[in-house]
Amino acid sequence: MDRRTFLKASGAASLLAPALIREALAAQQQPLVAVAEGKDYPAITRRAINAMGGMKRFVKAGDVVVVKPNMGWDRSAELAANTHPQVVRAVVEECLAAGARKVKVFDYTCNDARRCYVNSGIENALKGMKNVDCKQIEPERFRKVAINGQFLKEWELYDEALTANVYINVPVAKHHGLSRLTLGLKNIMGIMGGNRGYIHRSLDVALADVNAHFKSSLTIIDATRILTAHGPQGGNIADVKVLNKVIASTDVVAADAFATTLFGLKPSDIPVTVAAYKRGLGEMDLARIRVVKA
Known about the structure:
The chain has two domains: 30 residues; 262 residues, LarA, N-terminal domain (Rossmann fold, 3-Layer(aba) Sandwich). Helices cover 32% and strands 22% of the residues. A hairpin with a 7-residue loop joins strand 5 and strand 6.
């Protein structure tokens, strides 16, 4: 290559380099959503976690970890009202393998807690696991916290969630009669005490308030089977659609945005997703989210 050709090529490369750098930086800034699919639910859960960098990215040796599924309803696993017990157990196992000192699993149930814990299959799935507590909410452990939100100025939140080193949000993807869907953002209600009926006056804003104050380290959405109607309680197997998917992201808004498409809806159709996005809690524009198959 002669000098003139070399300089011409070098000049073109120098012009191209900033564009490549910008493209690379943009890709890094895009929130990542990992989607794993298959009939082996523990395996796909682990694949989704590994695609996010593995549980050791989030859990360090000696950490106390809260794994917060949805088990608010007296329903069996196949009815898709609660997080699948195999998904929950896989998440707990990954936390322990990463070095967690204690893993706590709980939910502030809507139906009778004892029946929810048993009939969801989650309590039994975790039975006998060392350093794992799956116990019912103790109401005296709620404490009033300053939220300073747009709708909620303060609220009672569960102490064991507040004091944990890591909070992992593990909702099931399902229809909801009031919010259209319940996914990661709405699963925060399981650590909220007080008169939860009150927040339905402005549900989307209230949930954005709490999620702005208390953030999930990792969101893992169980879409192994989804409840497509008559949620959040369900009860009819005809309303359940088997998808065999697990979704993971550090961006709860992005995770919810992608999961919304499984119902044939757009993220903009879900008021709490929009409220959280406007609050800067994550990305809802699917064009700006990097979705990878795990």
